[in-house]
């Protein structure tokens, strides 16, 4: 591939932009600590692996060019984000002094799934992989191997950024764990997730 350093720099700029992945990671880290954050991140990275595989074998191109497939994934993602957003807003009514270990044991298994589905059901990620990655292809080299390298690079940079992000949240967790602050953040996060869902619902494919 060509201009690898430029590609890595552009990836970093795109990764740090807030999106559904950031919102769900923030929510789970604030509510359940590093365990929630890292499991969510693992789910996100696994979904990015699927997107990488999809662009290598050409599935992303099929999805983006098919209005039906694009719409199905788009609306499924929007519905899931609305579900998470409403669930977060409703959680504000729960007792803030409830046993956290009990909450973790009952919901811990869903952190990975939340991160995985939030990213996987976002067709904008498929569009990004299909439109951004080819700009750095070297015509003289094998395309699938270049896509693989770029996909792995993006996943690694995503993991590094969110590890730093989760660690930062944990360092200011004393303030964040104040009941009023928790309720405020949960309210904002829930509203943001619903907002992302509405935006996603009106998203159009780059190609038809």
Automatic annotation (TrEMBL):
GO CC annotation terms, alphabetical: plasma membrane
Membrane topology: Multi-pass membrane protein
Superkingdom of source: Bacteria
Primary residence: membrane
Pfam families per UniProt: LysE
Keyword check for Transit peptide: no
The UniProt record lists the keyword Protein biosynthesis: no
Residues that span the membrane, as ranges: 41-63, 75-92, 112-133, 145-164, 184-202
Protein name per Swiss-Prot or TrEMBL: Lysine transporter LysE
């Amino acid at each position: 591939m060509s201009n690898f350093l430029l590609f890595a720099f552009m990836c970093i700029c795109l990764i740090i932009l807030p999106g559904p992945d950031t919102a769900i990671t923030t929510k789970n880290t604030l509510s359940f600590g590093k365990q929630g954050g890292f499991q969510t991140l693992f789910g996100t990275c696994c979904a990015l692996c699927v997107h990488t595989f999809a662009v290598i074998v050409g599935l992303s191109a099929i999805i983006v060019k098919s209005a039906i497939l694009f719409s199905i994934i788009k609306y499924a993602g929007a519905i899931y984000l609305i579900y998470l957003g409403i669930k977060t807003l409703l959680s504000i009514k729960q007792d803030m002094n409830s046993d956290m270990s009990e909450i973790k044991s009952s919901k811990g298994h869903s952190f990975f799934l939340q991160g995985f589905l939030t990213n996987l059901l976002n067709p904008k990620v498929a569009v990004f992989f299909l439109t951004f990655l080819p700009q750095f292809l070297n015509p003289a080299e094998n395309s699938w191997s270049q896509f693989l390298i770029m996909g792995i690079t993006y996943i690694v940079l995503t993991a590094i950024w969110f590890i730093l992000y989760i660690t930062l949240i944990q360092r200011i967790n004393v303030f964040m764990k104040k009941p009023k602050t928790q309720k405020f953040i949960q309210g904002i996060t829930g509203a943001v997730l619903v907002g992302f869902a509405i935006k996603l619902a009106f998203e159009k494919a780059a190609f038809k």
